[in-house]
Here is the input.
Amino acid sequence: MPAPVYQLDRTCQSLLETEWLLPDGLGGFAMGTALGTPTRRYHGLLIAATRPPVGRVAVLTQIAERLVLDSGDQPVWLTPFHFHDAPDRPRRSDLLDRFSKGTSWCQWLFRPGSGCTIEKRVDIAHAHNAVRVRYRIHAPAQAGILELRPLLSLRDFHALHRRRLDEFAIRHADQALIAATPEAGVLIETDRLERSDRPELWEALYFEREADRGQDCVENLLVPATYRLRFEGPCEASLFFSAEVERTAATFTFDEPPIVGLDHVLSRIPSEDQEARN
Here is the structure.
């Protein structure tokens, strides 16, 4: 039986309130909103259980994607973010066309216009602290660059910090990059993406659900490098993030795991009850 797929389209008025969760089988997870905007300190594309099933650290909060077209149109950000006091950062976007979710993946489909579509898919590794973020671009009448900025928190997942740029350590490991703090580290690898090694500090990211609870709600995030995907038609590329910094992407699989217990549940439903079995 195929895994269930859940879909929301852009007509839904609660994309910011709709949340998703992908467990990794260790105690870690990926979690966020259907819109992609992080609203809680616990939202992130990689929350790793470094001492399973606890010892969780927030590694990768999100990726900020900026589309720059050769046509000279104004660059656009695909995913909106909320900031406490940073007017130069992306705050809103109406490019999201569809959100889908399976048991170990989430997918966003953006339509920037002129027939161009950008698919972003997050796959979580089973029983490992790793995630793959894949981008597919179909642009029959466009050429340009998709800029990708990983937003790293690298902290205990209960805590928020307003670190300075020099409080993050960054080093290179062959073609990969490792970023770390005393709490956590991450290995970042890629295929077919150019990398610009100019670290940035994104200041004052604002988590409104934390503010609603009367908790700390502002954090500074590290962009260790900017990755660029040049396109002149269909293309795809991926970023790999691992909190197990000694393991490379080649050692992980991102196949969808079986739904544990489903066969047992189905075995207890009479074969003639097709409505229940479906």
About this structure: The mean pLDDT is 88. The longest helix spans residues 262-267.
